Amino acid sequence: MNINKKTTYNFQSESKQLLNLMIHSLYSNKEIFIRELISNAADSIEKLNFYSISQPNLFENDPNNKIQISIKEKEKMLIISDNGIGMKYQEVIDNLGTIAKSGTKIFLESIEKITKKDNKLIGKFGVGFYSVFIVSKKVSVSTRYAGMPIDQAVLWESSGEGEFTVSLIKKETRGTEIKLYLKPEEEDFLQSWKIKNIINKYTDHISIPIEIESFDPKSKIYSWEKINKASALWTIKKNNINEQQYKDFYKQITNEDNEPLTWSHNQVEGKIEYISLIYIPSKSTWDLWNKENKHGLKLYIKRIYIMDNAEQFLPNYLRFIKGIIDSNDLPLNISREILQENKISQKLKTSITKKILLMLEKLSNQDNEKYKIFWKEFGLVFKEGPAEDQENKEMILNLLRFTSIKLNHKEQTLSLKDYVKNMLPEQEKIYFITADNYDSAYSSPHLELFKQKNIDVLLLSDRIDEWMMNYITEFQGKKFQSVSTTDNSIDKLTNKNSIENKDNKNEILLFIKKIKTILGNQIKDVRLTYRLTNTPAIVVTDANAMTTQMAKLFLAAGQTVNPIQYILEINPDHKFIQKIINIKDDTIKDWIQLLLEQALLAEKGTLENPNKFISLMNNLFLNN
């Protein structure tokens, strides 16, 4: 074939419409084309490094790998070149003439046969190159396969409108040079500061040096300036990274001044290969509860930056976690939607979630003060875990913290493990109470028996607690039991005296009957109770009925809730009950109504008609 003789080809199997559709649907951010070209250049150099193991001559006496960027303002041209493996004539036609096909894919097939290892390189699907037409009116690619004669280089040119030309040219150096003739509206990509910022954002951690051509107007000398670090912190062995470097990197990726509580740096090899650097922050962000809050890990693929806030790798209850993940297995050209459904990303999520829970477990065992900080900042969010993550439910339960009667303070520091360890022999279940706030929970009349028996009860006053407890049924073989609902295990604790032994048995039974008649459908039932010491009566719900706190949650969410059918439990030994049993006139109706209203007020913290209650109470006090 003659040098410089051009042959025109149509894009194989694809039309101009398909090319335009792919470009504009895959890439909404124009600057992505630089990331794509840099990643392709890095692939080319990686291939050269592999093949040169058996063919050292491919280096052509130039073993220094590099990617270089030149800006030609007069020509409105951006040039990106590498000294990688390059392409042969037919490879250019095959790889640049067919969308969704690349030399990388072919290379993978051959390398897998040689090494029996799945080395997934960037650009597997071969569509990244075509992003150049977002900003370019014309593109030319000069490439020579390493080791080939200089007159066997290939020139590929196209304006991205359905056809391209290919010809043989001379090229002194191996590798590939891509010239982008920019559209008039895209000439801001000719500014070196902009190119540097893009490199810093997307490809700063590529291990291959990236250089940009600089010109000194005084000396009239051109020189090459390295613009990437060429070393990713997470790829460095842990033994070679000090504590301060980890902390500085955390501040760099989060833009925060606070230091992290702890971190975990892991390189995983096997069926799925990835590196993760995960941080647990020491301070929550102001928008943690905002539904629009952006969260997730920074995603890299083979050290190429892909996106911030990749939430697909974290369950929602761990949305406070910061860090990076660098995958060897995910394709570079991946959207958030595809990432959500990708099987590899789902496996990565499972692995990373487990790692974070192990980090928290280690922190709770080794540094109680730091774990207290974690729980104070993120405990409310973490409480979403039992409902969201059934697979890791046992680990999550071990990490939950509570306050209780015996702690006698609001700070949530008690683990379920310690609660169970301190249970009394006669105690069958893990008891808890939910309320609007700590003081209401601690002073609830439902706790009188438990305080008397020295049995601990978990005090749950966070808004999420009632909802969370619907997903927690037992821990270490012990079932959970709300003290505000009826339950046989609570009755067993009372050591109650049978009503048969009461001297006023008949009076009590008649009184119970009278209460039922007077209150009618205001209550579901009236019963005697022996779990009260200082309170005349309480209201409880059946085990399977909606609780008071759950009803409040539904109402706060704007949902309609049917009135709760409470059971009124009477303490026959209380002086108040003993007094009104003997009332024979019509005021008995008011006294019984007062009894119910007091019990409802203690349970709900409010009444539907507080003025009526006050009036009733005043009238009774004035007339007695």
Description:
The chain has 624 residues and is of the alpha+beta class. The protein has 4 domains: 7-226, Heat Shock Protein 90 (2-Layer Sandwich); 233-377, Ribosomal Protein S5, domain 2 (2-Layer Sandwich); 401-493, Rossmann fold; 499-622, Heat shock protein 90, C-terminal domain (Four Helix Bundle (Hemerythrin (Met), subunit A), Up-down Bundle), CATH 1.20.120. 36% of the residues lie in helices and 19% in strands. It has a 9-stranded mixed beta sheet with strand order 1-6-5-4-7-3-2-8-9, covered by helices on one side. Mean pLDDT is 87; it is low at 118-125.
Considering the chains and any ligands shown, give keywords for the structure.
624 residues, alpha+beta, Heat Shock Protein 90, Ribosomal Protein S5, domain 2, Rossmann fold, 4 domains, nine-stranded mixed sheet, five-stranded mixed sheet, 21 helices, 36% helix, elongated
Uncertain residue ranges: 118-125
Biggest sheet, spatial arrangement of strands: 1-6-5-4-7-3-2-8-9
Outline: elongated
Structural class: alpha+beta
- The helicity comes to 25-40%
In the CATH scheme, the class of the largest domain would be Alpha Beta
Let me know the average pLDDT: 87
In short:
It is built from 21 helices and 22 strands. With 624 residues, the chain is α+β, with helices and mostly antiparallel strands. The chain folds into four domains: 7-226, Histidine kinase-like ATPase, C-terminal domain (Heat Shock Protein 90, 2-Layer Sandwich), CATH 3.30.565.10; 233-377, Ribosomal Protein S5, domain 2 (2-Layer Sandwich); 401-493, Rossmann fold, CATH 3.40.50; 499-622, Heat shock protein 90, C-terminal domain (Four Helix Bundle (Hemerythrin (Met), subunit A)), CATH 1.20.120.790.
